[in-house]
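Hey L., structure's done. Input below.
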Amino acid sequence: MPNDPQLRPLPRLIFASRWLQLPLYLGLILAQAVYVYQFWTELVHLIEAAFGNQGALEMLVKSIGYKSTAIKDAAGAIIGYEPIAKLNETILMLVVLGLIDVVMISNLLIMVIVGGYETFVSRLGLDDHPDQPEWLGHVNASVLKVKLGLSIIGISSIHLLKTFINAANYDVKVLMWQTIIHVVFLASALAIAYTDKLLNSSHDRH
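Output:
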């Protein structure tokens, strides 16, 4: 037993080494705080741009990589872009998708922090807590791996949708490779889920 005072020194040391992961989870909590700050910064800029603040609009356009209609010379070369006078639907959609992306990554962080700590470090003692996450009641290393895979697919989907909306500003190769990478993520998650199902079926038979 882990709490057995007769536990030999070496096994006790090895078991206690799990606490070395604690600084990692604390670091992820700080990363979560940075994402919260990033989310509110973008949201404030969006609200300001909606009320006609040109500086906030320029910051939003720069952050999402959006370009307006290109201005070309007689030879067809791009010499500039038409100025963006106000917030349009495409910019709004890209910014909102960016905010959703931040939320999904934040959810992924929470899943790793809470689920990882519960699985690999120590129990949180949330069994009777009214706010215990529904998924935490049956989380283990295998379930956590599948949930992380699905979360990554969701994040990749948001990135791909942002790219397609702003496709005019991307090279065809970029669009192609982003699509291929997304399909690889999807295939990997399906393979992980299928492998987990096979392992659970084998375990149940025994």
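The first strand starts at residue 70 and ends at 72. The radius of gyration is 24 Å.

-- N.
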